[in-house]
Amino acid sequence: MSIEYLGLSEINGPLIALEGVKNAAYEEIVELTVEGKEKKLGRIVEVYDDKAVIQVFAGSENMSLHNTHTKLTGHPMEISLSPKMLGRTFDGLGRPIDRLGRIVSDIKRNVNGLPLNPVTREYPRNYIRTGISAIDGLTTLIRGQKLPIFSGNGLPHNELAAQIVRQASLGDAEADKNFAIVFAAMGVKYDVADFFRRTFQESGASDHVVMFLNLANDPVVERLITPKVALTVAEYLAFDCNMHVLVILTDMTSFAEAMREVSSSKGEIPSRKGYPGYLYSELATIYERAGIVEGVNGSVTQIPILTMPNDDITHPIPDLTGYITEGQIVLDRNLHGQSVYPPINILPSLSRLMKDGIGEGFTRADHQDVANQLFSCYAKVGDARALASVIGEDELSPLDKKYLEFGKAFEIEFLGQRADENRTIETTLDIGWHLLRMLPREELDRIDTKVLDVYYNKEESELPSEEDSTDGPSNAE
Q1: Minimal CA–CA distance to 419: which of 135, 136, 167?
Q2: Is the pLDDT of residue 172 over 90?
Q3: Is 306 helix (H, G, I), strand (E, B) or coil?
Q4: How far apart are CA 419 and CA 48, in angstroms?
Q5: If you ran DSSP here, which 8-state letter would residue 413 be given?
Q6: Residue 41: strand, helix, or coil
Q7: pLDDT of residue 59
Q8: Helix, strand, or coil here: 307?
Q9: φ/ψ (deg, to 5) at 405
Q10: At residue 360, what are phi and psi to the nearest 5 degrees?
Q11: Where do the structural domains in the chain lie, given as residue ranges?
Q12: DSSP string covering 449-460, please?
């Protein structure tokens, strides 16, 4: 028998306090009725003695100490799960907003998830093709990996996220039947949400996408639940339905700022930059839900996107994210100013699991050598540009001038590509070799001589046309 409590003892922003509570549990969901008609949901975020602090998802507007009835449900927040969620759009709490009705299913799961036993984890192998050369060639995304994108205000991370959703593939038309994307947006403006929704529909990608949208005018506390709801759906599709699932979370900065706001309302002692001291553990709780489980054919791969305040990579959010995840992709404002899209700065970017999911049997035998050499040569471009800024370009040695030419071509031809250009891994590596041939052979010291013999002296074949490079997954077969 459930007990209904009349009245509240305190209201503080999105938080309310209730006294005289029996058998309340942390993370338990409560149902709130305001003036006998308006229904709201909340969750218990603190319990001590007979008092409970409740976080109200829809905010505490219209609530007073005397007009609210509170009922404890006896369970944490749960979401109904079904394969029919593919192609659907939900709000930040998992409620349908596409007018197609609610999800009817006997399967319900706690959105907080369960920690994966490290012993049952399998090491991530094989890659997910995004069709973007800077990612596929130099910071390859591996199934089961968590690889964040570090961006900044005004940089095209939304366009990049939409392109990844449209183009992401396992590289095989047959395998792609078991590929799905879970997309969760937190604190985005309406026009940005409409851009994502329209882009996915027009490209035909929406059929294998589950979308969660928490808008900027939605209650702040919903943002704390949105990534957990999205990951619960991803885990169901991966571990129950044996699908390979790519989860894109944008923007984790909005999530962290929502956490700071709620923490301040609770009167907690702030840590760095005003964020709560448990920011690290909360981020880890989300990021560590990626992976592969032994004996299951599915996987959960994560691409969290965050905007660095003032482009500061040492800010607590990117700093802590870097500790937890397996690399990062960094967007650069200078490249964006030169109209390079996507403006990925490859020098601070890396994928720590890349070496185990590329090469022969996965991508192409020369992949690792080409990636190493492109990194090395582009680093020398920076040295040549720094020297040219001091003594002038005319005074540079012939080799340094070659590196300057290589740098310009690399940024335009390799990093730069159209927003609708879907490159195969072969196209990406061929462009890499085309650029490396601009330099003397003796400068290519990161490539095995046997590989050099095969590719460096090979006559330049005509690179794939624009039509070829925009083909779908069948190109990778």
Answers
A1: 167
A2: no
A3: strand
A4: 53
A5: I
A6: strand
A7: 81
A8: strand
A9: -65, -45
A10: -60, 135
A11: 4-76, 79-356, 367-476
A12: HHHHHHHTSS--
225: closest CA among 111, 378, 68, 387? Answer: 111
DSSP 83-124: GGGTT-EEETTS-B-SSS-PPP-S-EEETT--PPPGGGEE--
Strand pairing class (78-80; 89-91) = unpaired
The C-alpha atoms of residue 242 and residue 248 are separated, in whole angstroms, by 19
The torsion angles phi and psi of 89, rounded to 5 degrees, stand at -125, 135
From residue 6, give the alpha-carbon distance in Å to each of 32, 33, 67, 106.
10, 10, 8, 32
Output the average pLDDT for the chain. Answer: 90
Q: What is the CATH number of domain 79-356?
A: 3.40.50.12240
**Interval 321-377: pLDDT, tens:** 999 999 999 999 999 999 999 999 999 999 999 998 998 888 999 999 999 999 999
- In 101-227, where do the E strands start and end? 108-110, 121-122, 149-151, 179-188, 209-215
What is the torsional sign of CA 343, 301, 196, 187? Answer: negative
Enter the tokens of residue 328: 């990062």
If one looks up domain 4-76 in CATH, what number appears? 2.40.30.20
Residue type, 93: L
What whole-number distance in Å separates Cα of residue 431 and Cα of residue 136?
12
Q: How many residues does the chain have?
A: 477
Q: How far apart are CA 66 and CA 34, in angstroms?
A: 9
**The two three-digit tokens of residue 311, written as one number:** 């482009």
Q: pTM here?
A: 0.90
How far is 288 from 115, CA to CA, in rounded Å? 8
Sequence-distant (6+) residues with CB within 8 A of 206 are: 87, 197, 200
Q: Using an 8 Å Cβ cutoff, are 354 and 140 in contact?
A: yes
Give phi and psi for 54, each to the nearest 5.
-115, 135
